[in-house]
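Both lines are retained for reference:
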Amino acid sequence: MAISLTESAANRIKSFLAARGRGVGLRLGVRKTGCSGFAYVVNYADDFQPGDVVFEDRGVKVCVDAESLPLVDGTTVDFVKQGLNEAFRFRNPNVKGECGCGESFSV
C-alpha cells in the first residue's frame, strides 16, 4: 500500500507547513458524497491519530485513516496551478468513474 506525491505537491505541502508554523504532514481521506459516491478530503495534519497509516514521500508525511486507505491506495497526489486556480489533484488507480463536475468518484 502506498500514497505518493509529485514534486509540486511535496513542495506545496512543505511551504504551507513552514508558513503555518506547525503540522506533521498532509492528511488524506475520503467521505461519502456527491453524484458518484466519494470525495477526497485533504487537510494538514497537526498530529497522527490512532489507526492512521503514515507514508513518507519526498520528505513529506501523508497520513490516511484505515477506513479510507482501501479507496486511495496507490494514489499519486499532485498540486496544479492553472491561471488563478490552484488545487491538489489525484491520480487514483481505484477510480472506476467520476461525476461530470469532477467533485466525486466511484470505486
Q: What stands out?
A: The radius of gyration is 14 Å. The first helix runs from residue 7 to 20. The chain has one domain: 4-106. DSSP finds two helices and nine strands in the chain.
